[in-house]
């Protein structure tokens, strides 16, 4: 029974890379490859759950590990960094995007210099496996692996439809596993140097995945993602350099950052790390890379948006959150996050492409998480972690469903999802649960928002309260109109062939179940997963954020949702409802979809959703948002970092 | 304690439709008098609902019934939660949930008037959602709790500290009570907008459920208006009732004074009013704290 | 409580000279104030109990009147207001006039006049409400017989001026069985199984969102299976 956790963690970090090599060798989409992915994937998932459960169950919430012999890993890290730099340089030259080289060099060379001259930020710990890491293991292990399994089936269909794209699905799937390996590495590491290495892996991996189709659009978008993330990497490297040049700071581990407490010196690297986190989490002004990431096949969007890439940024922010309490950095981070939440939710109203709406909603929600983490209060961090959990599950489910719908209908436009409940009932129901999970009351996201609101009020951040209340208005609008499109019942419409392969359902069903189960498990999660994290981060005991009374009410609400079908059955007993047509001023042609004009001709009738492009359109809103937030970021960097010198 | 909450909720569930229906009848009489007419009997809304319950129900699809029933149940639940002394924020979240269910009922019909009404209703929700959340926050600032039970034990009435919130809330009540100039999604019968907007394709039972749900909603809204005046002193309840009466009369007056506006005007005006009155009030409170 | 305490009215103008319509509206003015009796002008057949018809029926309005009548939930009554609605009036001999309202729907109360007096109109509605009460009793019996289970949504009744046949004028309201067969045949004839969409290579990434209004296209240009 007693497998040392450390061994399992090592396995978790290394095994995905081995998996990547194996999958890379299996060129053809075959049963063998799917089997390898499923078996390997579930092995990883089980190990991740094993680690997480044993950490959560052991009273010893934080385990720091000091490795005696780190020469080999260190050399490996150096070699890896050089390799990544070389790869970026090579591809930049190949596609004539030379600016990426600069960012890569600026970020990597100082770190290499530190490593090679022995000035490396070398701490007394290398790995940290605590409750927060355990929670992240669960997210990456379960959601990430489910996306990989989904991808194995999806890529086959994808190349079936997109014959113009060269089939390199083995490469794509291998990248996904590399990504997961880097994720596991990042969340287990405590050594800042190692974190930087894994950070760069994810940047480069996402770049390669976005550019998968090799079309001009894909290449442009992938390089945009690359330079933005490398810019963040530069910020991270600058933070490392600062730590290295100021030995009196005395920290080189992530865990030490929070232990030293806020001071003039500490806040500089924290600000730089926070800046790096903003780019990773696609906050304004760095959001455009995430929007561009849609050109890649759906699994990569799901992976980047839900479980991995963007979550790294907020992971870092939550880690350094206690230091930011009451500092200018904290205030700026919360303002940028709140602003992003509001602006992205307005922009989401104006787009009709399903994946784009999801992308904006991701940006918006991450803005909220960023804002929560920036407050540095216990309630804020509580809400942030809860949001991370619920967002990962709901968003990956939504992306996968949209991908399946696209495969079935040939379109992912929301307008084309009109009457989905008739056309593809199974996927429509899953989608409804996913969307409800994003904004309806008893589901997790909204409850977390509620806690966020409380934390903002407590910390006195008025602007944030205003951003949040106005943002939740527009969030409601864009989700509800999408939900409405799906729910429209069109008569005499036909069920389309649901060609979703079974391997995709292996991924979708557990996620759907998880959303529902997490509604019920909410208080338990709060007590057993989030509270210990708060205890670790703030080194104090924290009272319950959400009282038992409210939890009971929420349970009742969840129960009510399931009661409605029964209730409506009882209320309509003895009342035979007559079916009739919808009212179209007396000229309904009989099928609710046509009317008869004054010449006696049948004309089609179709109600489009509202997009209000004239008021919140991307053309009108996107640039000003980017300018405003650029100014905010610049102010933060200049005052905090510039003020230190 | 729990029993007390249960009884309060039960009293609300039993009495609210009576009060709400009577208020709706009063509204029609006052409106008629403002227009120089005699108006219907006071209990006319009850006659209407009774008739609707006795009529045949026609539906466009079977999901419609499900959503409308859901709307009724959730609206009742929301009100019960409020009057039982629950959490204000939770009340407003439950409220928006019930509204979304109603909008889905309209969406599911696929009729042009219903869907147009549904879109407009969503926009209206977008307009008033910030204010409802802010009201809860305002009470929290004023009296330090989200729980209705604690709020009614206040020493001084909340209105003394959050008058801006009160103005904002009365303003969005125009939308919430479906009064002109903001009755875009569906209106009271005498005003007719887009046939009947949101409820165009409902009839019989379903329409009756919607009417009843709106009565519950009306009482809930009046309860929130009263919250601004209630303190631990029993006499304050009289003030609260008086305030409700004044606000109710004011809404009817506004209804009869103003013509309907375009949706974008509504969005601009409501958000500005919320930002100016409630936002400024919030800033001042935060500075004073 | 009686159902007759809140008769909601739907007013439809068959093809009148608008004289009667003005009188119908006049009943809602402060002078007559029909809201005293709980009467409301709804404008929506699904909410209405009383169908007020003014003017004679012509070939174009006949199917509309039938559809409105069909959409009204039972019990329901029809009041023909003005002499034109009663039997065609001075337009009776016109080439396009089919006659009074009773040519297309069963009329319960005839209120003559040119134009109809508001007092007479109110009297007519009050009479109709009495009939409504009777019909309600009958409805209860017929509901037991399963009358209400007819699925109207399957009835694609599409009548234009061209295929209007006076000999089947009551079909829409009286012999539902025949109409249903007709409708089902029509459905079978028009609806082929939806063509399986061929996935286009270009994803809808840059599709401009549709205009936010009712999009009315001709039947030919309708997008596949969308509308």
UniProtKB/TrEMBL annotation, chain A:
Residue ranges of coiled coil: none
Stored InterPro entries: CPA3_Na-H_Antiporter_A (IPR050616), ND/Mrp_TM (IPR001750), Proton_antipo_N (IPR001516)
Stored Pfam families: Proton_antipo_M (PF00361), Proton_antipo_N (PF00662)
GO cellular component: endomembrane system; membrane
Membrane topology of the entry: Multi-pass membrane protein
Keyword check for Transmembrane helix: yes
Alphabetic keyword roster: Membrane, Transmembrane, Transmembrane helix
Localization annotation: Endomembrane system; Membrane
Regions crossing the membrane: 6-26, 35-56, 76-93, 98-114, 134-151, 171-188, 194-213, 225-242, 262-278, 290-318, 324-350, 357-376, 382-403, 424-443, 463-484, 505-525, 552-571, 625-644
Tagged with keyword Secreted: no
Domain NADH:quinone oxidoreductase/Mrp antiporter transmembrane: start-end pairs: 189-472
Main location: membrane
Domain NADH-Ubiquinone oxidoreductase (complex I) chain 5 N-terminal residue range list: 121-158
Family affiliation: Belongs to the CPA3 antiporters (TC 2.A.63) subunit A family.
Annotated PANTHER family: NA(+)/H(+) ANTIPORTER SUBUNIT, NA(+)_H(+) ANTIPORTER SUBUNIT A
Protein name in the entry: Ech hydrogenase subunit A
TrEMBL record, chain B:
Main subcellular location of this protein, as a coarse class: membrane
InterPro entries, per the entry: ComplexI_Subunit1, NADH_UbQ_OxRdtase_su1/FPO
A UniProt-annotated Pfam family: NADHdh
Membrane topology: Multi-pass membrane protein
Cellular component, GO, one term: plasma membrane
Superkingdom as given in the UniProt entry: Bacteria
Keywords for this protein: Membrane, Transmembrane, Transmembrane helix
Spans through the membrane: 6-26, 65-84, 90-110, 122-142, 154-175, 215-232, 238-257, 269-288
Subcellular location as annotated: Membrane
Protein name in the entry: Ech hydrogenase subunit EchB
From TrEMBL, chain C:
Pfam families registered for this protein in UniProt: Oxidored_q6 (PF01058)
Cofactor(s) essential for the protein: [4Fe-4S] cluster
InterPro entries, per database record: Complex_I_20kDa-like (IPR052375), NADH_UbQ_OxRdtase-like_20kDa (IPR006137)
Any one GO molecular-function label of the UniProt entry: metal ion binding
Keyword 4Fe-4S: yes
Domain of life: Bacteria
Domain NADH:ubiquinone oxidoreductase-like 20kDa subunit residues, every copy: 17-127
TM helices/strands, residue ranges: none
Transcription found in the keyword field: no
UniProt xrefs under SUPFAM superfamilies: HydA/Nqo6-like (SSF56770)
Region entry Disordered, spans: 183-227
Keyword line: 4Fe-4S, Iron, Iron-sulfur, Metal-binding
Gene3D superfamilies in the record: 3.40.50.12280
Composition bias type Low complexity, residue spans: 201-219
UniProt similarity note: Belongs to the complex I 20 kDa subunit family.
Protein name as it appears in the record: Ech hydrogenase subunit C
């Amino acid at each position: 029974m007693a497998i040392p956790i450390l061994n399992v963690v090592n396995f978790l970090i290394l095994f995905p890379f081995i998996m990547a090599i194996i999958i890379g060798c299996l060129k053809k989409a075959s049963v063998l490859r799917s089997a390898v992915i499923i078996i390997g994937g579930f092995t990883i998932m089980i190990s991740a759950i094993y680690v997480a459960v044993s950490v959560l169950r052991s009273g010893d919430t934080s385990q720091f590990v000091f490795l005696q012999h780190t020469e080999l890993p260190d050399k490996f890290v150096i070699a890896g960094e050089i390799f990544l730099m070389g790869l970026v340089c090579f591809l930049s030259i190949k596609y004539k995007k030379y600016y990426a080289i600069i960012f890569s060099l600026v970020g990597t060379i100082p770190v290499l210099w530190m490593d090679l001259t022995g000035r490396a930020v070398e701490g007394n710990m290398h790995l940290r496996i605590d409750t927060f890491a355990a929670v992240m293991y669960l997210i990456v292990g379960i959601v990430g692996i489910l996306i990989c399994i989904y991808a194995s089936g999806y890529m086959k269909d994808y190349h079936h439809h997109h014959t113009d794209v060269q089939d390199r699905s083995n490469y794509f799937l291998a990248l996904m596993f590399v990504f997961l390996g880097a994720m596991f590495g990042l969340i287990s590491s405590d050594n800042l140097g190692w974190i930087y290495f894994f950070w760069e892996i994810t940047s480069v991996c996402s770049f390669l995945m976005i550019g998968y189709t090799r079309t001009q659009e894909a290449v442009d978008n992938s390089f945009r993602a690359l330079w933005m993330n490398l810019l963040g990497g530069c910020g991270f490297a600058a933070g490392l350099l600062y730590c290295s040049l100021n030995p009196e700071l005395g920290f080189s581990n992530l865990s030490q950052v929070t232990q030293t407490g806020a001071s003039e010196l500490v806040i500089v690297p924290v600000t730089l790390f926070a800046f790096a986190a903003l780019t990773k989490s696609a906050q304004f002004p760095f959001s455009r890379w995430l929007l561009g990431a849609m050109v890649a096949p759906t699994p990569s969007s799901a992976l980047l948006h839900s479980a991995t890439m963007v979550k790294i940024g907020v992971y870092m922010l939550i880690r350094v959150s206690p230091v930011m309490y009451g500092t200018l950095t904290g205030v700026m981070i919360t303002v940028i996050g709140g602003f992003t939440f509001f602006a992205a939710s307005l922009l989401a109203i104006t787009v009709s492409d399903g994946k784009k709406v999801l992308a904006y909603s991701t940006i918006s929600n991450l803005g909220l998480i960023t804002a929560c983490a920036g407050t540095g209060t216990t309630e804020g961090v509580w809400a942030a972690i809860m949001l991370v959990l619920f967002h990962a599950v709901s968003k990956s489910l939504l992306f996968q469903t949209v991908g399946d719908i696209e495969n079935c209908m040939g379109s992912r436009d929301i307008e084309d999802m009109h009457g989905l409940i008739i056309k593809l009932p199974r996927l429509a129901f899953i989608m409804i649960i996913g969307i409800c999970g994003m904004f309806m009351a008893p589901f997790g996201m909204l409850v977390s928002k509620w806690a966020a609101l409380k934390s903002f009020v407590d910390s006195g951040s008025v602007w944030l309260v205003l951003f949040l209340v106005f943002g939740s208005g527009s969030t409601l609008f864009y989700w509800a109109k999408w939900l409405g499109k799906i729910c429209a019942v069109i008569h005499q419409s036909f069920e389309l062939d649901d060609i979703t392969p079974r391997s995709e359902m292996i991924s979708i069903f557990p996620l759907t179940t998880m959303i529902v189960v997490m509604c019920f498990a909410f208080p338990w999660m709060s007590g057993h997963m989030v509270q210990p994290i708060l205890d670790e981060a703030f080194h104090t005991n924290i009272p319950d954020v959400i009282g038992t009374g409210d939890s009971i009410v929420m349970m009742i609400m969840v129960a009510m949702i399931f009661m409605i079908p029964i209730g409506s059955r009882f209320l309509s007993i003895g009342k035979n409802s007559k079916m009739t047509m919808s009212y179209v001023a007396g000229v309904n042609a009989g099928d609710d979809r046509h009317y008869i004009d004054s010449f006696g001709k049948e004309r089609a009738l179709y109600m489009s959703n509202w997009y209000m492009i004239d008021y919140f359109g991307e053309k009108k809103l996107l640039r000003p948002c980017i300018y405003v937030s650029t100014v905010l970021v610049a102010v933060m960097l200049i005052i905090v970092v510039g003020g230190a010198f | 304690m729990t029993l007390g909450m249960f009884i309060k909720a039960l009293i609300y569930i039993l009495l609210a439709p009576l009060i709400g229906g009577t208020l709706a009848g009063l509204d029609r009489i006052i409106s008629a008098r403002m227009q120089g007419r005699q108006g219907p009997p006071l209990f006319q809304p009850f006659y209407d609902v009774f008739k609707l319950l006795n009529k045949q129900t026609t539906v466009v699809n079977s999901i419609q019934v499900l959503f409308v029933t859901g709307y009724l149940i959730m609206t009742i639940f929301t009100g019960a939660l409020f009057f039982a002394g629950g959490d204000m924020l939770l009340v407003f979240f439950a409220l928006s949930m019930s509204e979304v269910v109603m909008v889905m009922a309209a969406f599911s019909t696929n009729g042009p008037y219903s869907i147009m009404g549904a879109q407009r209703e969503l926009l209206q929700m977008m307009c008033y959602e910030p204010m409802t959340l802010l009201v809860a926050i305002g009470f929290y600032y004023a009296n330090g709790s989200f729980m209705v039970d604690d709020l009614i034990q206040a020493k001084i009435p909340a209105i003394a500290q959050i008058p801006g919130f009160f103005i904002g809330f009365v303003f969005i009540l125009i939308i919430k009570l479906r009064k002109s100039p903001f009755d875009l999604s569906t209106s009271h019968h005498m005003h007719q907008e887009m046939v009947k907007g949101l409820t165009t394709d409902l009839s019989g039972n379903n329409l009756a459920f919607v009417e009843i749900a709106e009565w519950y909603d009306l009482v809930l809204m009046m309860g929130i208006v009263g919250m601004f005046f209630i303190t631990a002193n029993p006499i304050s309840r009289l003030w609260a009732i008086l305030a409700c009466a004044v606000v109710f009369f004011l809404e009817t007056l506004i209804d009869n004074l103003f013509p309907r506006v375009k949706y974008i005007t509504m969005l601009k005006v409501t958000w500005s009013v919320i930002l100016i009155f409630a936002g400024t009030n919030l800033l001042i409170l935060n500075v004073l704290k | 409580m009686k159902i007759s305490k809140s008769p909601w009215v739907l007013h439809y103008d068959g093809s009148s000279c608008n004289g009667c319509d003005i009188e119908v509206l006049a009943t809602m003015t402060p002078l007559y104030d029909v809201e005293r009796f709980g009467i409301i002008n709804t404008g929506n057949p699904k909410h209405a109990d009383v169908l007020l018809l003014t003017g004679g029926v012509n070939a174009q309005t006949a199917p509309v009147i039938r559809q409105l009548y069909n959409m009204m939930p039972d019990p329901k009554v029809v009041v023909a207001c003005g002499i034109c609605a009663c039997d065609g009036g001075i337009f009776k001999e016109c080439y396009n006039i089919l006659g009074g309202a009773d040519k297309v729907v069963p009329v319960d109360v005839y209120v003559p006049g040119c134009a109809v007096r508001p007092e007479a109109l109110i009297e007519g509605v009050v009479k109709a409400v009495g009939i409504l009460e009777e019909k309600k009793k009958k409805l209860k019996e017929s509901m037991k017989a399963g009358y209400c289970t007819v699925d109207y949504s399957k009835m694609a009744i599409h009548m234009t001026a061209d295929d209007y046949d006076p000999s089947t004028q009551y079909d829409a309201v009286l012999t539902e069985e025949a109409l249903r067969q007709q409708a089902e045949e029509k459905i079978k004839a028009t609806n082929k199984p939806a063509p399986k969409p061929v996935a286009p290579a270009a994803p809808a990434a840059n599709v401009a969102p549709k205009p936010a209004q009712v999009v009315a296209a001709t039947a030919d240009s309708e997008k596949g299976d969308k509308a």
